[in-house]
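Lab notebook, bench 4. The sequencing result for the construct came back, and we need a structural model before the next group meeting so we can plan mutations. Quick request posted to the team channel:

Model the 3D structure of this chain.
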Amino acid sequence: MPERNRLSERLVPFLAMPYLADLYKVLAQLGCILYTALMHDTPHDKNQDLMAMRLVIAITRLRARLRETAHTGATALSSSQLAILQRLRHEGPATAAALAAAEHVSHQAITQSLSALKQAGLIQTTPDPTDGRKRLISTTEAGQNLFYRFAASWLVQAIDKTISPEELPMLDRAIELLERLAANDQ
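Done. Here's the predicted structure in token form:
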């Protein structure tokens, strides 16, 4: 079960990434790529096109399912807020500007998420030791412990029911690949 928790803990923030939120935009971009490839008679791997389309659909379905179960699962936090906590937990303290850039959201959007997380007692701010004008945001003990309560979440249960123990390493590798795709700023 700890392996499954770690995998779902890595999946939720990925699916929360704001720039994947607009399915129509992603599909339109994919359509433009396909159209351009066909119109210019350039060699194009149709298998990659199909994989890209399957990926868009799978991510969209997972995001929708996570949104459905967000308020009935382990937390009442949005997937964007979970992504921020995950980033702080793994990368350490950061400024609001750094978090906004890393999560590909506006300063206003990150401020709203941080406000909710602070009210919930999951993050704290401290003065930046190198620049007193800035504040560093970090997780509180409650923010760290939140991920341990994830065991009852829909995703952990779905992984447990759907993925065999032999398939867990493949899922872990797939998550690594998805994280790389999400980090690509092309």
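The chain has nine helices and two strands.
Will bring this to the meeting.
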